[in-house]
Design brief:
Elements: H1 6-14, H2 20-38, E1 41-44, H3 46-61, E2 73-77, H4 104-111, E3 115-120, H5 154-161, E4 167-171, H6 178-184, E5 187-190, E6 211-215, H7 218-228, H8 246-252, E7 259-263, H9 273-288, E8 292-296, H10 304-319, H11 337-348, H12 351-364, H13 370-391, E9 396-400, H14 416-420, H15 427-432, E10 435-443, E11 450-457, H16 462-480
Parallel strand pairs: 2-3, 2-4, 7-8, 7-9
Antiparallel strand pairs: 1-3, 4-6, 5-6, 5-10, 9-11, 10-11
Helix pairs in contact: 2-3, 7-8, 8-16, 10-12, 10-13
Length: 494
């Protein structure tokens, strides 16, 4: 049962073939079996998950109407607050903190009867591309335990690939949902900015952060997207429009006549040959299904990485100023307020977080603001215009999700620039605030590891990428004869 899709689990629950308690316990057993190897979870809420499952079973038994995903388990990235459950953001700074309220995403999960199994590991405050920056140790990729599962949401993606949960929530600031999905052979979606509430999401970069669904199939991601999406008055950036009809689009999957734009700047040098080969094979499949493939140029994408690594650290510097040892989190040392603050931030923050705070503080400082932060915002506008022009020629845009498959843990730990380059294909969508999705494109011939195919759609047209993603997924499933995750090595067999 744990290897079925969330939609199949939901159908089994509705048919009375299994109870939510049984389904939840099966996933808790899998976590107990394999997570000592994977380290996807920072906190597993055994008692709370069973209590949530029991409540759903009682509602079903009484004949009460429940949502499509009611009773299906989920793993929650540890950057979203859940009342009474430890929320650390992968940092020593928040060790032991239990929030007094639920984020809007958690509220909607609970309203839909989705069972939250626990909190997943992540790069500290979502800063990283490998989940090696967690203060609690790295997460391992179930495909090869010596490799990274992506970042910053590597815990959520690894939990899916290790069959510890059928659904997960991630957050995407520069690719932290899509890049982990690519290197673990799962599906990850960054909705349009403002399409899912950020209330209760511990901020890294407020103009870029976006929560979204992680799953093993496009349809599962669509169901979760509709469950958590929609307007929220508690979030000033929330879009007051209906959630796009992503479930209907995922069930449709008809792309005949659609124009699919291949971004010239997001391929070529720096991309692994096997990743590019799978990308081109996916394009051929989409063309065979009736789509028209066109090439588009987005010349300012070459500056996206540099702009991002000025904007994101600047906002990070501002957002993390609140962690001052005075209100919440750990407190270290004695003396004046300044001495305690300095000691606490020295101990509480890890190396990458300190690096970005320093970069951001410098970029925002007097005399440099216009030269760095201001210029980066101008580039951001140019990138948005590139997207607008490209969408005038195509319904969706596509590229490889990440330039390579999963690299070895520790391989890039001392080279931040090499680490940052992992997000080169995903960052532009965050800067423009549009939607992006990664679906598996196959296993690279060099190493037998998964690669991802990225689909981008205009703002609030997220349904388009679900339609294309579902079409590609179905065609590849027919070609492969079995889901890609059936190739994941057995875990926990000791």
């Amino acid at each position: 049962m744990i290897k079925k899709s969330a939609a199949e689990m939901a159908a089994a629950l509705s048919a009375g073939e299994v109870t939510s308690v049984e389904l939840t316990q099966a996933h808790l057993d899998q976590i107990a079996k394999v997570d000592s190897d994977v380290h996807a979870f920072l906190h597993v809420d055994n008692d709370g998950a069973i209590a949530q499952a029991r409540a759903v079973d009682e509602k079903r038994k009484s004949g009460e109407r429940v949502s499509p995903l009611a009773g299906v388990p989920l793993a929650l990235k540890d950057v979203l607050v859940q009342k009474g459950i430890p929320t650390t953001c992968g940092s020593k700074m928040l060790e032991g903190w239990r929030p007094p309220y639920d984020s809007t995403v958690v509220t909607r999960l609970k309203e839909n009867g989705i069972v939250i199994l626990g909190k997943t590991n992540m790069d500290e405050f979502a800063m990283g591309s490998s989940t090696e920056n967690s203060a609690y140790g790295p997460t391992h990729n179930p495909w090869d335990l010596s490799r990274i599962p992506g970042g910053s949401g590597g815990g959520s993606s690894a939990a899916l690939a290790a069959f510890e949960a059928p659904l997960a929530i991630g957050t995407d600031t520069g690719g932290s949902i899509r890049q982990p999905a690519a290197v673990t052979g799962t599906v990850g979606v960054k909705p349009t900015y403002g399409g899912v509430s950020r209330y209760g999401l511990v901020a890294f970069s407020s103009s870029l952060d976006q929560a979204g669904p992680c799953a093993r199939t496009v349809l599962d991601a669509a169901y979760l997207h509709e469950a958590i999406g929609g307007y929220d008055r508690m979030d000033s950036t929330s879009i007051n429009e209906p959630v796009p009809a992503v479930v209907a689009a995922a069930k449709d999957g008809n792309i005949k006549g659609m124009k699919i734009g291949v971004i010239k700047e997001l391929q070529g040098d720096g991309y692994q040959p096997g990743v590019l080969k799978l990308f081109n094979q996916s394009l051929e499949i989409l063309a065979s299904l009736g789509a028209e493939i066109v090439e588009v140029s987005c010349k300012y994408f070459d500056y996206a990485l540099a702009a991002y690594y000025l904007i994101a650290p600047s906002e990070c510097s501002s957002n993390l100023a609140r962690f001052d040892a005075m209100r919440y989190g750990i407190r270290v040392g004695e003396g004046s307020a300044e001495e305690v603050m300095n000691a606490t931030r020295q101990v509480g923050f890890g190396r990458e977080v300190k690096r970005r705070i320093i970069l951001g503080t410098y970029a925002l400082s007097s005399g440099y603001y216009d030269a760095y932060y201001g210029s980066a915002q101008k580039v951001r506008t140019l990138i948005s215009r590139d997207f607008d022009n490209a969408f005038g020629k195509a319904d969706v845009l596509v590229s490889p999700t990440a330039p390579t498959t999963a690299f070895k843990i520790g391989e890039k730990a001392n080279d931040p620039i090499a680490m940052y380059l992992n997000d080169i294909a995903t960052i532009p969508t965050n800067l423009a605030g549009i939607g992006g999705m990664s679906v598996p494109s196959g296993l690279a011939e060099e190493d037998g590891l998964p690669a991802g195919f990225q689909i981008m759609a205009p703002a609030m047209k997220d349904d388009r990428m679900y339609k294309v993603g579902a079409a590609l997924e179905a065609a590849l499933l027919t070609k492969w004869g079995k889901p890609i995750l059936d190739n994941v090595p057995a875990l926990g067999a000791k």
